[in-house]
Amino acid sequence: MDNWLTRETLLIQVRNRYDEKSWAEFDEYYRSFIKMIITRMGVTHHDAEDLTQQVLLSAWKALPDFDYDTNKGRFRGWLCQVTGNATKNFFDKRKREVKRHEKATSDRSLDYIKTYNQADIEQIATEEWEVYISNLAWKNIETELADKVREAFLLLTQGKDPADIALELDIERNTIYVYKKRVTKLLYNEINRLDRELG
């Protein structure tokens, strides 16, 4: 992750459909985020895998004509719209299939389907983005941390008492708060960096 492309450079490069390296990087950064939105909208795991692939294919087709302009909004807003539209189309298609088989009144397999407007989808995407970017930030910084620093921070996030953590790790209680402050700052900076570069 250290030598990744910036968002702008990546988006310019993926407009070339034959740049496999850039597409692999695009897939790595955005696939799980897309799937998080789709799953949150109520699509089952198996269908979410297929639908995520469809969204990535739609993006692959649309990005060569995508006009990257930060003044017009964030890239993830566009990606959210593509994802939301694909998911709504999936739900519409599934409903039509059920009606065609005259199961609409008795088949409960579609109980999970809800109606989402664009504001709902944007809210879901915003919440899932925060989770996604936080997890990615932690993944990026955790290998830079000393073992005890990492363990102390993780134990704190699990709600363990600092006194118990101090005993478990054989460190001073005040040291735990120093570790927490250090890791929180690193995490905050990395989240902001990722949000600028990928958002």
Automatic annotation (TrEMBL):
Keyword DNA-binding: yes
UniProt cross-references to Pfam families, sorted A to Z: Sigma70_r2, Terminase_5
Domain Terminase ATPase subunit N-terminal span(s) in chain numbering: 150-186
Organism of provenance: Lentisphaera profundi
Signal peptide: none
Protein name from the UniProt record: Sigma-70 family RNA polymerase sigma factor
InterPro entries listed in its UniProt record: ATPase_terminase-su_N, RNA_pol_sigma-70-like, RNA_pol_sigma-70_dom, RNA_pol_sigma70_r2, RNA_pol_sigma_r2
Record-annotated RNA polymerase sigma-70 region domain positions: 28-96
Swiss-Prot/TrEMBL keywords: DNA-binding, Sigma factor, Transcription, Transcription regulation
PANTHER family given in the database record: RNA POLYMERASE ECF-TYPE SIGMA FACTO, RNA POLYMERASE SIGMA FACTOR HI_1459-RELATED
Gene3D superfamilies linked to this entry: 1.10.1740.10
